[in-house]
Amino acid sequence: MYKRILLKLSGESLMGEKQYGIDESRLQDYALQIKEIAGMGVQVGIVIGGGNIFRGLTGTSRGFDRVKGDQMGMLATVINSLALSSALEKSGVKAKVFTAVNMAPIGELYTKTKAMEAMENGTIVIIAGGTGNPFFTTDTASALRGIEIEADVMLKGTRVDGIYTADPEKDASAVKFDEITYDEIYRRGLKIMDLTATTMCRENDLPIIVFDMDTSGNLKKVMSGEKIGTIVHN
Q1: For 29-38, how does the pLDDT look when each residue is reduced to its tens digit (9 = 90+)?
Q2: For residue 82, what are the CA distances in angstroms to 28, 41, 105, 128?
Q3: Which of 18, 64, 66, 183 is 20 to 30 Å apart from 203, CA to CA?
Q4: Which domains does the chain have, with CATH numbers?
Q5: Is the peptide bond preceding residue 207 cis, with omega within 30 degrees of 0?
């Protein structure tokens, strides 16, 4: 079992059945799944995307300046992080939001030392605001934070149950991998995350498990070593 994890959640998944924003039942389900693994003694760090509220690149295509668009996307991740911390606290778990840029009193400015101290004290740490820089995705932020907090693994919770040879939602003949190396991901041109994030994980030997977070109980199954999802390793 893993001692410390970095859980990457997608903003789009938080929409649940909605067209925009946050689906409260999906949020509650995520909180309960996270509470379950925290109860197993796992130290949890979380990075959430902001695509359910605002996506920087989409903003750029609508005429926003890229830097400002990405900053708006960072703020969207802060909204999602506050919502998740609230849901976790409501379920009886200690949670703390750290932000990549100074945003007191909304969240404490992130440092590795403070984040690790909080996790070691049993608090779930949510790191918001991406890397704090434009031109970097929340995938890259999750790779960076996972490496910084010395996580044993990055768990990438998505709406699909792993990595396939092609997009299973578009190609019925797509075949799922149980495990795959970083080299093969590059060779096949698979888009599990952006290249910056994938390269950081590969160079720092941080394995990734891609799994379906939208099915209740799956997070605990991954933590218990059940063979669901796809593991990416060197």
Answers
A1: 999 999 999 9
A2: 13, 23, 12, 9
A3: 66
A4: 4-233 (3.40.1160.10)
A5: no
